[in-house]
């Protein structure tokens, strides 16, 4: 389980996270939801220690984040291009050399799943194929937790559907996923838990199936209540 306990993050004097606490379990897809600038990416960066926090705690499987944690967690950034000068094949070789948790079999399956051509240079890929390549390079690591920042950002409906489909396959397996997205429609039916952020705090955290069954509400219904008052 990934656990944030009362995390406070400031950029200069601006307090972006004002005591954020939530958990994300293995085997579940947890979706961070909130308007632009609320701090979703900051949370993912803080989990990866890419940005320091002022107070609070972040635990992975009950332990503080250390270098070893990164054999358990991978971060798939938004559509920015990783390793632009390489072909997809060269990027996979690079990952293979760099990470002992690289799983070539799963990489080959993902290549096929996303219909990518491994001879293509990454800098020449469309935005949708760049996002798919980023997902391939992240999901082919044998780690327990996957953090994804806006995997659907700026890409067409068909690519979004294909990316959403990967969540329903064995390629995700029983890993824990934390995802940020504004495209809730694409994955509403796939997420297990929603964490709604507002003004630097968790406004609401709920199990999507429970709220569907008990209150007959979708994630979007709850978002409307929260953000539109
Ligand atoms: N490196 C930085 N230096 C200063 N301020 C920053 C930095 N990174 C983010 N911020 C600010 O922190 C706030 C939260 O940013 P963050 O990117 O985490 O939001 P977000 O919820 O992911 O937004 P979006 O939905 O637009 O991606 C914003 O006001 C942003 O301007």
TrEMBL record:
GO MF assignments: ATP binding; ATP hydrolysis activity
One matching Pfam family is ABC_tran
**Which residue ranges traverse the bilayer?**
none
CDD domains reported for this sequence: ABC_DR_subfamily_A
Keyword NAD assigned: no
PROSITE patterns membership: ABC_TRANSPORTER_2
| Record-annotated ABC transporter domain positions | 2-224
Q: Which UniProt keywords apply?
A: ATP-binding, Nucleotide-binding, Transport
Instruction: Cite the PANTHER family for this sequence.
Output: ABC TRANSPORTER ATP-BINDING PROTEIN ALBC-RELATED
Its recorded name reads: ABC-2 type transport system ATP-binding protein
Taxonomic source organism: Piscibacillus halophilus
